[in-house]
Design a protein that fits this description.
Blueprint: H1 2-46, E1 57-59, H2 66-69, E2 70-72, E3 77-78, H3 84-90, E4 116-119, E5 127-128, E6 134-135, H4 142-156, E7 164-166, E8 172-174, H5 175-179, E9 182-186, E10 192-196, H6 204-217, H7 220-226, E11 228-230, E12 240-243, E13 249-259, E14 265-271, E15 280-282, E16 293-295, E17 302-305, E18 308-311, E19 317-320
Antiparallel strand pairs: 1-2, 3-13, 4-15, 5-6, 7-8, 9-10, 11-19, 12-13, 12-19, 13-14, 14-15, 14-16, 17-18
């Protein structure tokens, strides 16, 4: 009798467990279908055809120029600008693929692989001691890297009169006067003035001394006031994305791609940072770590760079050098 009752009990429990199991499987299937549908719906809602797909571009690590290393494979995208400064930037040389970003003191930058896709083969400007020898210093930071690229281009093209930067007190540091032998002197109230102290010198070492001076007295705040604001839809290589503050940040636009069908923009940026470091080509954390960032201020009024969030509703904007 006890055996019969136990058998019925076991069958009863087994049936209950089987029903529960079938119900669980059915519920899980429904949950899976629901989750799948939800994810598909979210994917459909958030998908953006402007975002680069890894099949849209190629990074050719055998090339050492920007224009050749970062190749857009989608023929719907074109480079709409071919002015001289744009071409100069695109033809800048890069270190071999895998080069680690270094700070001014030689230390390696951590997490660089999540921040950049390349590093410009360009040293850092330092300070000069009383003997005229250049020594490394925490000097060439974010805005300084922007000024460095623009000044290097103009110096190479011998457009000396266009090399000038305005300091915080309104004083304009003009390279043409510097090259003619004038030097900047400050009085007790820190008012600056020019005085002829040296012989004319348009050589590169003297040019670096000028940059060293500029980097000490100019920064994101002064640069934001000096440059003219432009619409994001008009951005082109050489323009500056900047938030002028203390602290602030600034990036140089290195490349611009425009979709021939939609007019949408993709932009490549370079930066230095704090402390002073080599200039790196940034990777977009929002665009599958592509070398270009999608710019759509109407729908996304921000640029999320790896180390700075530029909010166009809170003072960030694109600006352009005078004379361009």
């Amino acid at each position: 009798m006890k055996t019969h009752i136990k058998s019925k009990y076991i069958w009863g429990v087994g049936a209950i467990l089987l029903i529960a199991l079938i119900g669980s499987v059915y519920s899980y299937a429904q949950l899976t279908d629901s989750t799948s549908n939800t994810l598909q719906s979210l994917s459909s809602e958030t998908s953006d055809s402007s975002l680069p797909d890894k099949n849209d571009y190629m990074i050719n690590d055998q090339e050492n120029r920007i224009i050749n290393r970062y190749v857009c494979l989608d023929k719907d995208w074109e480079r709409p600008y071919c002015d001289d400064y744009s071409q100069w930037l695109l033809n800048l040389e890069l270190y071999p693929d895998g080069h680690d970003v270094r700070y001014y003191n030689g230390m390696l930058k951590s997490n660089a692989s999540r921040i950049n896709v390349g590093v410009l083969k360009m040293d850092l400007v330092g300070t000069f001691n009383s003997n005229g020898k250049e020594v490394s210093a925490d000097l060439q930071q974010c805005a300084d890297a922007c000024m460095r690229l623009w000044a290097e281009y103009l110096w190479e093209k011998k457009q000396y009169s266009k090399i000038h930067f305005k300091g915080g007190n309104g004083f304009v540091y003009e390279y043409a006067k510097w090259a003619e032998g004038y030097r900047v002197h400050f009085d007790k109230s820190w008012h600056a003035s020019w005085r002829k102290d040296a012989q004319p010198d348009y050589g590169y070492n003297c040019f670096r001394k000028y940059l060293s001076l500029v980097f000490m007295y100019c920064g994101t705040l002064t640069l934001a006031h000096e440059l003219k604001k432009i619409a994001a839809t008009d951005v082109r290589p050489g323009d500056i994305l900047i938030y002028g503050g203390s602290p602030g940040h600034a990036l140089t636009v290195m490349d611009v791609l425009r979709n021939k069908k939609t007019g949408q923009l993709r932009v490549m940026f370079s930066q230095s940072y704090m402390p002073a470091q080599e200039i790196e080509i940034l990777t977009s954390p929002d665009d599958d770590y592509a070398p270009w960032f999608t710019i759509d201020i109407e729908h996304k009024p921000w640029v999320n760079s790896p180390q700075w969030y530029f909010d166009f509703n809170k003072g960030s904007c694109f600006r352009r050098w005078a004379g361009r």
